[in-house]
């Protein structure tokens, strides 16, 4: 059968490398992956390996956002990881070159790499270039915020159409430091993709060169037997969290790193993010809450420049190794200790945007297992107010657009967790509408669902235990007083313990009616978000 697909007598002693190709026209994030796959395949053959290409799926979070389809987004992480594991292990492949673009492609590939532990490299499809409207840089989030702006009368229909038409100019993943670019930075930091590769633009020639070089490096890694679990150490995870904090990255990184660590057999908890947050400042001025996009970060020195600053400040473990076998100290040896003074994207440790990291872990009677708040750009770190409770994202969005939400409200969206959704949808539509309406600093939003990497403001997600399993968020009633305090790391329902227990005794489980298919399987298998929402526990 191998002869039928092109093997000759001299090929059977060569390493077989699986190329997991996430190409799809469903989303611009994955649009250019076929070209990278073809170039990587040629490079693998030239380097003395036998490439075997197979396809993986993707879900466009931006297109499915705010719809029933978004329930499949986090589920796709498991589907992709399962597919890569199945193809590689079934065919006894010697190495893996995973090529992906949209949000779940990256953590899915990392999960598969950790499960199989064969030499592996990830190739990121690249970031989209910013859309342009006048002098403004646009991203996909600009379109979501424009919905809130038009409902509050800040823009008209023509302006909305202009923003929508210019927000996404071509191929590549969402342009700010949203989830895709955050996770690509994580993989580069942890040594499973090549230096500078995580911030390249999808449509630049650098990306093709990166695919070729990645293929060559992987063949050498197979020869040297350098495996993912050699690299995915506790110290490497700490480095990844430090870089996420420095970048101002996505809340989804918490969920994904917990899942990857569990698969890799590394002890990591949600509390570790808070510990590292206390010592690592935000030094990059990036969207969604900042000014610049990821291509600007690349021009300013990319992830190596950020890592060098952290390394010089004693905030990274320099002995961690990458897929080439080099230590971080070696990789960063020629990177300047101080960023170029002509750029404004990357700051020094002595002049950070925020003196502490932006991903805060909040606990209290509303989230005994924890929750995650993205507090960069938040002007009011503590809000106490009356609860406005919604059982779904759609009902909340309708209330925001129709003016039901007022200054001081605490919005509660529940039954959107891993089990209750199912699938833990991202709440970009309501959070963007809140920003667009001008309420970003005046209200708080809490949910057992997730947030897009494009979300910012006083928002708290990943509330665990979730409503579907009887977490306290299921017991909140309209008008209840709730405190969200990022300074005290507190998320509190201001109701007596006796009243909470009375409500709990009357609570009845109510799950969505998915009785077959992938969502039904997911509901039965998925763990708490505080443990990474994994399905193979």
From TrEMBL:
Cofactor: Mg(2+); [2Fe-2S] cluster
Keyword annotations: 2Fe-2S, Amino-acid biosynthesis, Branched-chain amino acid biosynthesis, Iron, Iron-sulfur, Lyase, Magnesium, Metal-binding, Plastid
Known catalytic reactions: (2R)-2,3-dihydroxy-3-methylbutanoate = 3-methyl-2-oxobutanoate + H2O; (2R,3R)-2,3-dihydroxy-3-methylpentanoate = (S)-3-methyl-2-oxopentanoate + H2O
GO MF terms, alphabetically ordered: 2 iron, 2 sulfur cluster binding; dihydroxy-acid dehydratase activity; metal ion binding
Any matching Pfam family: ILV_EDD_C
Single GO BP term: L-valine biosynthetic process
Protein name in the entry: dihydroxy-acid dehydratase
Pathway the protein takes part in: Amino-acid biosynthesis; L-valine biosynthesis; L-valine from pyruvate: step 3/4; Amino-acid biosynthesis; L-isoleucine biosynthesis; L-isoleucine from 2-oxobutanoate: step 3/4
Residue intervals of the Dihydroxy-acid/6-phosphogluconate dehydratase N-terminal domain: 14-329
EC code(s) of this entry: 4.2.1.9
Enzyme class of the recorded protein, top EC level: lyase
Similarity comment: Belongs to the IlvD/Edd family.
Annotated Dihydroxy-acid/6-phosphogluconate dehydratase C-terminal domain residues: 344-533
Family matches, as HAMAP family: IlvD (MF_00012)
């Amino acid at each position: 059968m191998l002869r039928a697909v092109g093997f000759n007598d001299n090929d059977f002693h060569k390493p077989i490398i699986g190329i997991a190709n996430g190409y799809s026209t469903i989303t611009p994030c994955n649009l250019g992956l076929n070209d990278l796959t073809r170039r990587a395949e040629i490079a693998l053959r030239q380097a003395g390996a036998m490439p075997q290409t197979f396809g993986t799926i993707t879900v466009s979070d931006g297109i499915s956002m705010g719809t029933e389809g978004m329930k499949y987004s986090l589920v796709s992480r498991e589907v992709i990881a399962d597919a890569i594991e199945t193809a590689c292990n079934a065919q006894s492949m010697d190495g893996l070159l995973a090529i992906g673009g949209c949000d779940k492609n990256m953590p899915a590939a990392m999960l598969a790499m950790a499960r199989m532990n064969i030499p592996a490299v990830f190739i990121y499809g690249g970031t989209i270039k910013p859309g342009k409207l006048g002098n403004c840089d646009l991203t996909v989030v600009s379109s979501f915020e424009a919905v809130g702006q038009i409902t509050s009368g800040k823009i008209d229909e023509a302006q909305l159409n202009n923003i929508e038409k210019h927000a996404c100019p071509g191929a590549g993943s969402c342009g700010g430091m949203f989830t895709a670019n955050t996770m690509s930075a994580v993989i580069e930091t942890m040594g499973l993709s090549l230096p500078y590769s995580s911030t390249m633009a999808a449509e630049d020639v650098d990306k093709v060169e990166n695919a070729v070089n990645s293929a060559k490096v992987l063949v050498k890694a197979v020869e040297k037997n350098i495996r993912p679990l050699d690299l995915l150490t506790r110290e490497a995870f700490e480095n990844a969290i430090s870089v996420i904090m420095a970048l101002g990255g996505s809340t989804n990184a918490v969920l994904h790193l917990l899942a990857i660590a569990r698969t890799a057999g590394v002890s990591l908890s949600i509390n570790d993010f808070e510990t590292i947050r206390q010592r690592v400042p935000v030094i990059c001025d990036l969207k969604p809450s900042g000014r610049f996009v990821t291509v600007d970060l690349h021009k300013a020195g990319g992830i190596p420049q950020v890592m060098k600053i952290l390394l010089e400040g004693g905030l990274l473990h320099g002995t961690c190794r990458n897929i080439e076998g080099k230590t971080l100290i070696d990789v960063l040896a020629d990177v300047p200790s101080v960023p170029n003074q002509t750029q404004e994207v990357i700051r020094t440790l002595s002049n950070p945007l925020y003196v502490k990291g932006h991903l805060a872990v909040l606990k209290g009677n509303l989230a005994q297992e924890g929750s995650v708040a993205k507090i960069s750009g938040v002007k009011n770190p503590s809000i106490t107010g009356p609860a406005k409770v919604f059982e779904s994202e759609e009902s909340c969005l309708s209330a925001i657009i129709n003016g039901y939400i007022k200054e001081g409200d605490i919005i509660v969206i529940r039954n959107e967790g891993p089990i209750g959704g199912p699938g833990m949808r991202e709440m970009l539509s309501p959070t963007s509408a809140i920003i667009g309406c001008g309420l970003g600093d005046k209200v708080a939003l809490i949910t057992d669902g997730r947030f897009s990497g494009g979300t910012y403001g006083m928002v708290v997600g990943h509330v665990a235990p979730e409503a579907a399993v009887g977490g306290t968020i299921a017991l909140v009633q309209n008008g209840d007083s709730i405190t969200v305090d990022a300074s005290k790391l507190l998320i509190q329902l201001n109701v007596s313990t006796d009243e909470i227990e009375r409500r709990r005794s009357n609570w009845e489980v109510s799950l969505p009616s998915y009785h077959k298919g992938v969502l039904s399987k997911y509901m039965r298998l998925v763990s708490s978000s505080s443990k990474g929402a994994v399905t193979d526990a």
